Amino acid sequence: MTPNPNSNLPHIRVVAAEIEQNGEYLITQRRPESALPLLWEFPGGRVQEGESDSDALRRSIRHRLDVGVQVGHRVLHVTHTYDKYALDMIVYRCALVGAPRAANVHQIRWVRPDAFGQYPFPGADQQTVDALLSGT
């Protein structure tokens, strides 16, 4: 983690994939033992030192869903401050290469936008949901 110039909190950069098929979006549920347990999110993960966003996204999707991904264009940049860290989340439109499975997540779901309200999301992901629903 690198320091956030706007606070004393550690700063984390993460990438997430917006994956849509037939009007539904792929979301994953965090594991019970993880930080923010059992909340839902767009699949992705932390960007490691010296790693590009695209490489981080491909690595994270392979790890979590055991599938390849084609990384498209950036659709959103969200910042959110949690109690112990500040988060920069960059969302990219992506396409899967293969069929995903819950390899290192609790569950996966394909969800229509009008059903997002049935799934609790962490703050940064909720901002992504809100932007997606508003069409921005």
Commentary on this structure:
The chain is an alpha+beta fold. The chain has one domain (2-127): Nucleoside Triphosphate Pyrophosphohydrolase (Alpha-Beta Complex). The protein is built from two helices and eight strands; from the N terminus they run βββββαβββα. The protein has helices at 53-65, 123-134; strands spanning 2-3, 10-21, 24-29, 40-41, 44-46, 68-81, 86-97, 107-111. Strands 1, 2, 3, 4, 5, 6, 7 and 8 form an eight-stranded mixed beta sheet that branches. A hairpin with a 4-residue loop joins β6 and β7. The longest helix is centred in the middle third of the chain and has 13 residues, at 53-65. The chain is globular and about 45 Å long. The N and C termini lie far apart (29 Å). Residues 1-6 have low confidence and may be disordered.
Q: What count of helical segments does DSSP give? A: 2
What is the CATH first-level class name? Alpha Beta
Assembly annotation = single chain
Helix content: 10-25%
Per CATH, the superfamily is: Nucleoside Triphosphate Pyrophosphohydrolase
What is the element string, with H for helices and E for strands? EEEEEHEEEH
Number of domains: 1
Calculate Rg over CA atoms.
Answer: 14 Å
Total strands: 8
What is the CATH T-level topology? Answer: Nucleoside Triphosphate Pyrophosphohydrolase
**What distance lies between the first and last C-alpha atoms, to the nearest angstrom?**
29 Å
β-strand percent reads: 35-45%
Molecular shape: globular
Largest sheet: 8 strands, mixed
Secondary structural class: alpha+beta
Mean pLDDT: 89
CATH architecture: Alpha-Beta Complex
Uncertain regions spanning at least 5 consecutive residues: 1-6
